[in-house]
Specification:
The complex is a heterodimer of chains A (about 170) and B (about 350).
Chain A lengths: L2 H27 L1 H20 L3 H40 L8 H24 L6 H34 L1
Helix pairs in contact in A: 1-3, 1-4, 2-3, 3-4, 4-5
Chain B lengths: L2 H47 L3 H41 L7 H28 L11 H29 L2 H4 L10 H48 L3 H41 L7 H23 L1 H40 L10
Classes of the chains: A mainly alpha (about 170), B mainly alpha (about 350).
C-alpha cells in the first residue's frame, strides 16, 4: 500500500463524511430558512411593484439577490465536497497504475486532496464576505484540482501504454 | 449476502433507479414544470402591472410549489446516484475494512437502508408536506430523509474507521488484498474514457465559473429588477421583454450546470465500472460493446444537454437517448455481475478473486 494511495483513499472518505455532515446540518438548520427568505423577498418585490412602491420593490429584489447568492454557494459546497471526494477515492483505487515516481505521486495526491478541500471552502467563504480572499481560495483550489488531474491522466496513459507494450 | 455483494448490488440498483427516475423526470416533468414556473412568474408580473398585489402573491405561492416539486425531484435523482457510486466504492474497498464479516455486513445494511430512505423521503416532501408533523417547518418526509442521511453518514464514518484501522495495522504493509484490480482492454477503455469525461466536466465547470457564473447572477438580478420596475411604471412591453430575457437566462444556466455535473458523474461511473469488469460474466466482445455504448451515451448526454438551448428538442431528444444508452449498458453489466455472483454463490466460493470459478 503506497502512501499516495492512502492519502487519496482516507482523504476521500473523510471528505465524503465531512460533506455529508455539512449537507445534513444544512438541510436541517439552514435550507428551509434560506428558501423562505428567497420566496418572501420575491413575493414582496412583486406585490410592492403592484402597489407602485418602487423603493420597497427594489429593496426586496436586493434582499432576494443576497439570499440567492448565499443559498447557491451553500448548496454548491455540499455537492462539490462529496463529488470531489468520490473523484479522490476512484483515483486512489487506480493510483498504482499511474506511471510516475512515488515522490511525484505523493505530491499529486496531496495536491488533489488540498484542492478538493480548498475549492469548496473558498466557495463557502464567499457566502460570508465578498472580499478577494474567498475567490482566490476557490480559484487556486480548482486550478490545483485540474492541474493534478491532468498530470494523473498523463501518468495513467503512460502506465497503460507500458502495460500494452509489455 | 456478504457486505461486498450488498454494497455492489445495492449500489447498481440505486444508480439504475436514480437514472431511470432522472430520465422519466427529464421527459415528463422537467420542461412542463419549467413552463408552469414561467407561466406563474409571468402571471405575477402581469398582476403587478394591473396593480393586483394579492394575485401577485398567489402566483408566487404557485411558483414556490412548482419549484419545491422540481427541487425535491432533482435531489432524489442526485442523491440516489451519489449514494450508488459511494456504495460501489465501498464494495471495492470492502476487503480493506478491518472489521469482522458480520460487522461489515451490518454496516452495508445500514448504508443501503439509509441510501434508499433519504431519496424516497426527499421525493415525498412535496406530497406529504407538513401533515401530522410535530415541527413547524419540517414535515415527516424530511425527518425520514434526514434520518436516512444520518444512517449513510454513520455507515460511511464506520467504513472510514475500518480503513484507518487497516492502514494502521501491519496487514496493510505485509499483505496485498484484492481490490478488483484489472488491466484488461475493456477496463482500460472505461478507465481512460471515464477520466477524460471527468476532465471534460472539470473544464466545463471552470469555464462556467470564470465566464458565466457572475454574469448570470448579475443578469438574474437585472432581469427581476426590470420586471418589477416595468410593472411599476405601467410598461407591458418592458415586462414582456424582461420576462423573455429571464426565461432565456434560466435555460442557459440550467443546461450548463447539468452538462458539467453529468459529464463528471458519468466519468466516475465509467471509472468505477472498470474495476468490476472481471466480475461481468459476459463474452469479451459483448463486454467491449457495452463499455463503448456506456461511453458514447456518457458523452452524448452532457454534450446534447449543453446544446439544448441552441438546437431545442432535437438536442433534448438526443440527450435522452444518451441517457438510455447509459442505462442499457449499466443494466447489461449489472446482469453480468448478477450471473457471476450467482455462480459464486452456487459454488459456495467467497467473492475474493478476479477469476471466474
Amino acid at each position: 500500500m503506497t502512501r499516495a494511495r492512502r492519502i487519496l483513499l482516507t482523504g476521500g472518505i473523510a471528505l465524503a463524511v465531512f460533506g455529508m455532515a455539512y449537507g445534513m446540518w444544512y438541510a436541517i438548520f439552514a435550507e428551509h430558512q434560506a428558501l423562505e427568505d428567497i420566496g418572501v423577498s420575491l413575493s414582496t418585490a412583486f406585490s410592492s411593484a403592484a402597489r407602485r412602491d418602487t423603493a420597497e420593490s427594489a429593496a426586496a429584489i436586493s434582499r432576494y439577490q443576497e439570499s440567492k447568492y448565499v443559498y447557491d454557494r451553500q448548496v454548491d459546497v455540499h455537492g462539490h465536497w462529496i463529488g470531489l471526494a468520490m473523484v479522490l477515492i476512484v483515483l486512489g483505487l487506480c493510483f498504482d497504475q499511474v506511471s510516475f515516481s512515488e515522490k511525484l505521486k505523493i505530491w499529486l495526491a496531496v495536491g488533489m486532496l488540498a484542492g478538493a478541500w480548498i475549492f469548496p471552502l473558498g466557495v463557502l467563504l464567499q457566502a460570508f464576505g465578498h472580499g478577494p480572499l474567498p475567490k482566490i481560495l476557490a480559484i487556486s483550489g480548482s486550478v490545483l484540482e485540474i492541474a493534478a488531474l491532468c498530470f494523473i491522466a498523463l501518468g495513467l496513459a503512460r502506465g497503460q501504454s507500458s502495460v500494452s507494450r509489455s | 449476502m456478504g457486505a461486498r455483494r450488498l454494497f455492489l448490488l445495492g449500489g447498481i440498483a440505486l444508480i439504475l433507479t436514480g437514472m431511470i427516475f432522472g430520465d422519466i423526470f427529464a421527459v415528463f416533468v422537467l420542461h412542463q414544470n419549467a413552463a408552469r414556473v414561467g407561466a406563474n412568474l409571468a402571471g405575477a408580473a402581469h398582476a403587478a402591472l394591473h396593480r393586483d398585489a394579492a394575485a401577485a402573491q398567489t402566483y408566487f405561492q404557485s411558483v414556490g410549489m412548482f419549484l419545491e416539486n422540481r427541487g425535491t425531484q432533482v435531489d432524489t435523482h442526485v442523491h440516489m446516484i451519489g449514494f450508488g457510486y459511494l456504495a460501489l466504492f465501498l464494495a471495492i474497498l470492502e476487503p480493506w475494512l478491518a472489521f469482522s464479516p458480520e460487522t461489515k455486513r451490518r454496516i452495508a445494511q445500514i448504508f443501503v437502508l439509509g441510501s434508499w430512505l433519504l431519496p424516497i423521503g426527499v421525493f415525498l416532501i412535496h406530497y406529504v408536506g407538513l401533515a401530522y408533523s410535530p415541527l413547524q417547518s419540517i414535515g415527516w418526509a424530511s425527518i425520514f430523509a434526514d434520518f436516512g442521511g444520518l444512517l449513510v453518514l454513520v455507515a460511511t464514518l464506520a467504513c472510514f474507521l475500518g480503513l484507518w484501522k487497516y492502514f494502521r495495522s501491519q496487514a496493510s504493509s505485509t499483505s496485498v488484498k484484492d481490490l478488483l484490480m484489472d488491466q484488461s482492454s475493456v477496463s482500460c477503455l472505461l478507465a481512460t474514457g471515464g477520466l477524460l469525461l471527468i476532465l471534460l466536466g472539470f473544464a466545463g465547470g471552470a469555464y462556467y465559473a470564470t465566464f458565466d457564473l457572475y454574469r448570470h447572477e448579475a443578469q438574474d438580478f437585472h432581469d427581476l429588477s426590470q420586471i418589477t420596475a416595468a410593472a411599476a411604471s405601467d410598461s407591458p412591453q418592458g415586462v414582456e421583454e424582461a420576462l423573455a430575457d429571464y426565461g432565456q437566462l434560466q435555460g442557459d444556466k440550467a443546461v450548463k450546470i447539468a452538462a458539467h455535473a453529468h459529464s463528471i458523474e458519468f466519468g466516475l461511473l465509467a471509472m468505477l465500472l472498470a474495476f468490476f469488469q472481471p466480475y461481468v460474466n459476459l463474452r469479451e466482445s459483448w463486454k467491449r460493446r457495452w463499455a463503448l455504448i456506456l461511453l458514447i451515451g456518457s458523452l452524448i448526454l452532457p454534450v446534447c444537454v449543453f446544446l439544448e438551448l441552441r438546437y431545442g428538442l432535437l438536442a433534448g431528444g438526443l440527450a435522452d437517448i444518451g441517457g438510455l444508452l447509459v442505462i442499457a449498458a449499466l443494466l447489461a453489466m449489472g446482469i453480468g455481475i448478477l450471473r457471476y455472483t450467482g455462480k459464486v454463490d452456487a459454488a459456495g466460493i467467497a467473492l475474493t478473486g478476479g477469476t471466474q470459478p
